[in-house]
Write a structure and sequence with these properties.
The complex is a heterodimer of chains A (491) and B (435).
Chain A: H1 16-19, H2 39-43, H3 60-71, H4 95-100, H5 103-106, H6 118-135, E1 139-141, H7 147-164, E2 171-175, H8 181-188, E3 192-196, H9 206-212, E4 217-223, H10 235-244, E5 248-252, E6 272-274, E7 295-297, E8 309-313, E9 316-320, H11 337-373, E10 389-392, H12 394-397, H13 403-412, E11 419-420, E12 429-432, H14 440-459, H15 461-465, H16 478-483
Parallel strand pairs in A: 2-3, 2-4, 4-5, 5-6
Antiparallel strand pairs in A: 1-7, 6-7, 8-9, 10-12, 11-12
Chain B: H1 8-17, H2 48-60, E1 67-68, H3 81-87, H4 90-93, H5 105-122, E2 126-127, H6 134-149, E3 153-157, H7 162-172, E4 179-182, H8 193-199, E5 204-210, H9 221-230, E6 234-239, E7 256-260, E8 276-280, E9 293-297, E10 303-307, H10 314-317, H11 330-365, E11 377-381, H12 385-394, E12 397-398, E13 401-402, E14 413-417, H13 424-434
Parallel strand pairs in B: 1-12, 3-4, 3-5, 5-6, 6-7
Antiparallel strand pairs in B: 2-8, 7-8, 9-10, 11-14, 13-14
Classes of the chains: A alpha/beta (491), B alpha/beta (435).
Chain lengths: 491, 435
């Protein structure tokens, strides 16, 4: 039944510190071509450290084996599907890695003279323009380092605009289906958070919205399609309600993979939105980052964007630091340039039509999974879904098996789990996003695995609850880890 | 399109299974008014060959084949081949955040090693799994100090990287954290302790200093700690040049260390991606932002690792979280981990020693502006920085950073950096141009 995986030999490996032995080395420096300097004399004896206690000492061969063995303990997109809802784990083209490492780009210092950085600046300008076209917005900043950083930038922009109008207002409205970063961001931007209950169909309730949008509200932060994978059908009306009261519509672009080439936030009333280049635009997640979180805005917000901004000066690009309304910097330099290069390479590879086709395939894959799994898992919100679908464990919970258990059992079938227990409005959620880069075979294997687990829940629920079995590490005790934190190695 | 794996016949089969005739039908529920009724105005897709060509052409428009003496937060260090070898493995490159511990032990183990090495280097008890970069680690450290002390005011040295200070102000503005700066001693280039003492009060949550500071000078961490602690404030020590930790005494008097790891085999890459780090005293761990990996066991009692203390984080605590950070810089932190492994205990010391020697050789030929002790960067007095840099560019040398843009009083000064990659001949050429 499990046709994707079989148990496999996996090697043990100690921590670097346990592998170390004095005198081993994996480096060789060139001979010094200037006179050596006595450290105590140059720095002051008090400022010179003793040896770094416990620091690794291994040979080159041991170093590469160490990290290679560790790597084999990971699941990755290169192994197979990663159905993590909201995370958009798509294939990461390797050409993007190559171009980001071209010397003239990789070795460019952020302070090298602008005349000697025109290539980098052109890459950024071209990406800004492409993202503006894709989102239907007027201007884009590439400075934010990740999605949550983009959110913060976006909310600070809204605050700056409202402050200029005379009143920054007090609170941000956030639907109960939102990502945790949304309320955390609002708090860091100095706003109070008011949660907005979703309607029975899992979307924004506009009549409720009309009641709660007061003169105190700075913005509504909305993810569209929302975290159920459902398009906010009343988004234009929501924007009108907000705008009529002088409030702004912020869109979390985490789910842009459902919209590229099909619908543009700028065309449905969004004032500010952030993108996750490490989701929609395929830059690798790398085990948790780096990402990039560009923010796209409408014209009236452009003056507040973080400085510096790219500007055309004759036939050259220049950095414009003199931006008196700017919210300031949100990070040093200009952004995660290496990530931007990869995202532009992805956009160039697809082209306009290709990007739209990717969206069509992403939605097709999610709808296909929904149709196949609907008989086996509860679908709490039956509205049409886009790039992801959210089931609940309601039926399996009757046998004592919960979404987290099903997720762990899925590992034995050769898949990374889906997103567990999110969004919060679905009790026991199974949130599945296949992305467009899965073929029919991988999808069918995933569907077969899910159906098989649903049957196992009926016949042997305890077996499912103790999964996984095929991994080198069995179920990990997260409770003890938090109770008595051991956060570093000690001899 | 080569990134879409389905054949047309597979698409048709799948559509049929969905009861649809075309993919467009799957979008029928979208309101008419939101739909884009024209193709995106972007050129058609291009081949791999053309993509390489495009980026090679852009790279050619940048500096190529230049020697450089720029530092100022971003340093040219040799990148051992093993670094890209390891991070190019798909298992690291294309994996997600290691929430599913059973199939993420590779990433988790490497982060645990990273956290350990960060503690060993900085002298702190705990370190997180990375921040976006050094500049954003600073306001996160300041907010952490504000939570820990229940106070809000921040005193930051004018010798902290100017762009880091700008980022701090952006964050602090809406946090009820007034930020004030204190000065430096004009002769030494070190922090002005009297000015700090004068500006210190009981409402101050944190004092922020950088060492080596923006002028490359080893700063007075101990003295700053005394002043801060006397008034119940925390001391945050910032570093931008991580290689200095191979030879300099770690800032053990600090309560929080906020740093940038770009020096550890991360390409300058026109400003990012880099990796920031926050390390702190054990008692502050529950105030820390960002991800932490902890040791535990699996059901067989075998050692295992997992993300832990998540109740600090946004996905659990939402608006009450210690930070809104989610995605960090995991792969870049892995690069730094491989770098630290390759150089190891002896190598990092030797590397730092070479940097020290190179910078002192160059400084010996120029006119240092400050008398403070420095590591691999220093400020030189230069009559006309722009003219000097212009002359150097003709020799394919990018000179130092003219400081007037950040410090109006230093219009006659440039910040030079020399690393193990700075050749004697190039340094002699710089000296000649300044003579």
């Amino acid at each position: 039944m499990i046709d994707k995986v079989r148990p496999h030999l996996s090697q043990n490996e100690a921590l670097l510190f346990e592998r170390s032995s004095p005198g081993k080395r994996a480096y060789q420096l060139p001979a010094l071509d200037v006179p050596p300097v006595d450290a105590a004399e140059a720095l002051g004896a008090d400022n010179v450290r003793a040896e770094i206690e416990g620091f690794p000492e291994v040979s080159e061969v041991e170093a590469i084996r160490h990290f290679t063995r560790l790597s084999t303990w990971n699941y990755a997109i290169d192994h197979g599907m990663y159905p993590l809802g909201s995370c958009t784990m798509k294939y990461n083209p390797r050409i993007n890695e190559l171009v980001a490492r071209i010397d003239g780009l990789a070795w460019a210092h952020p302070y090298q003279p602008e005349v000697l950085a025109q290539g980098s600046m052109e890459v950024m300008a071209r990406l800004e323009a492409a993202l503006a076209e894709i989102t239907g917005m007027d201007a884009v900043t590439l400075q934010p380092a990740a999605g949550a950083h983009g959110e913060l930038t976006g909310i600070l922009l809204i605050r700056a605009l409202l402050e200029k109008r005379g009143d920054p207002r007090r609170k941000i409205l956030i639907p109960d289906s939102a990502h945790g970063t949304n309320p955390a961001t609002a708090a860091i931007a100095g706003y109070a958070v008011e949660n907005v209950k979703s309607s029975e169909t899992g979307v924004l309730d506009v009549s409720a919205l009309e009641q709660i949008v007061t003169g105190d509200v700075a913005a509504l932060m909305v993810t569209n399609p929302n975290t159920l994978g459902v398009f906010e059908e009343n988004i234009i009306r929501a924007a009108e309600i907000l705008h009529a009261k002088g409030a702004m519509l912020y869109m979390d672009g985490a789910n842009m993979n459902a919209l590229v080439g099909v619908a543009r936030p700028g065309d449905f009333g969004v004032d500010v939105l952030h993108l996750n280049l490490h989701k929609t635009f395929s830059t690798p997640h790398g085990g948790g980052g780096p990402g990039a979180g560009p923010v796209a805005v409408k014209k009236d917000i452009e003056p507040f964007l973080p400085a510096p901004r790219l500007k055309r000066s004759g036939k050259k690009w220049a950095w414009d630091y003199k931006r008196k309304h700017s919210i300031g910097r949100v990070r040093a330099f200009y952004g995660n340039f290496g990530v931007l290069v990869r995202a532009l390479a992805y956009i160039l590879a697809h082209g306009g039509a290709g990007l739209r086709n990717a969206t069509l395939d992403a939605v097709l894959n999610a709808v296909y999974i929904r149709k196949q799994l609907e008989p086996y898992f509860e679908l709490p919100y039956p509205s049409p879904n886009m790039h992801e679908v959210v089931f609940s464990d309601e039926r399996q919970a009757k046998a004592g098996v919960h979404t987290g258990d099903i997720a762990k059992r899925l590992i034995d079938y050769g898949f990374h789990p889906y997103t567990v227990s999110f969004p919060l409005i679905v009790h026991g959620a199974l949130m599945i996003e296949p992305t467009e880069t899965e073929g029919k075979r991988e999808l069918d294997q995933f569907i077969a695995a899910m159906i098989s687990i649903a049957k196992e829940v009926e016949t042997d629920p305890q077996m499912v609850k103790n999964a996984p079995y095929g991994t080198r590490t069995s179920r990990v005790d997260e409770v003890s880890a938090a109770r008595k934190p051991v956060l570093r190695w000690k001899p | 399109m080569r990134y879409l794996p389905k054949s047309d016949s597979e698409r048709r089969q799948m559509l049929a299974a969905c009861g649809a005739e075309s993919a467009e039908e799957l979008f029928a529920h979208l309101p008419e008014a939101v739909r884009l009724k024209r193709p995106l105005d972007l050129p058609a897709g291009i081949s791999e060959y053309e993509i390489v060509d495009y980026f090679r052409a852009r790279a050619a428009e940048n500096a190529n084949g230049y020697a450089s003496f720029l530092g100022a937060g971003v340093y040219r260090h040799y990148r051992p081949v093993l670094v890209d070898t390891v991070v190019s493995r798909g298992e690291f490159l294309t994996s997600y955040t290691p929430y599913q511990a059973e199939i993420s032990q590779g990433t988790l183990t490497a982060i645990f090693e990273f956290q350990t090495m960060m503690c060993q280097l900085t002298g702190m008890d705990v370190a997180n799994a990375s921040m976006y970069d050094g500049s954003t680690a600073v306001p996160e450290a300041a907010m952490m100090a504000a939570r820990a002390t229940g106070k809000g005011r921040i005193l930051v040295a004018g010798t902290v990287h100017p762009e880091y200070r700008q980022v701090l102000r952006t964050y602090a503005k809406n946090q009820g954290m007034p930020v004030e700066e204190f000065g430096y001693v004009p002769e030494a280039g070190t922090i002005d302790l009297e000015d700090l003492d004068r500006k210190m009060d009981d409402l101050t949550a944190a004092v922020i200093v950088q060492s080596p500071n923006f002028f490359g000078i080893v700063d007075q961490v101990k003295a700053a700690a005394e002043i801060a602690h006397r008034r119940g404030a925390l001391l945050i020590v910032v570093f931008t040049e991580a290689v200095s930790l191979g030879i300099l005494e770690p800032p053990a008097e600090a309560d929080i260390v906020a740093g940038e790891l770009q020096s550890f085999a991360i390409s300058p890459s026109y400003g990012g991606p880099y990796a920031g780090i926050l390390a702190a005293r054990e008692k502050l761990v529950r105030q820390m932002p960002g991800r932490l990996v902890g040791q535990t066991v699996d059901t067989h009692g075998e050692r295992a690792f997992c993300l832990t203390l998540a109740t600090r984080e946004q996905h659990i605590r939402r608006e009450k979280a210690t930070s809104n950070i989610c995605t960090n810089q995991a792969l870049i932190a892995l690069m730094a981990t491989v770098f630290m492994t390759v150089y190891g205990k002896q190598g990092l010391r030797e590397l730092a020693g070479q940097n020290l020697a190179k910078a002192h050789y160059l400084a010996g030929k120029l006119k240092p502006r400050f008398c403070g002790r420095f590591f691999n960067e220093f400020v030189a007095r230069v009559e006309n920085p722009e003219a000097v840099n212009k002359a150097l560019l003709k020799k394919k040398i990018i000179g130092g950073l003219p400081l007037g843009r950040f410090y109006p009083e230093l219009g006659d000064a440039m910040l030079f950096c020399a690393t193990e990659m700075s050749g004697k001949a190039e340094m002699d050429a710089v000296a000649e141009a300044l003579a």
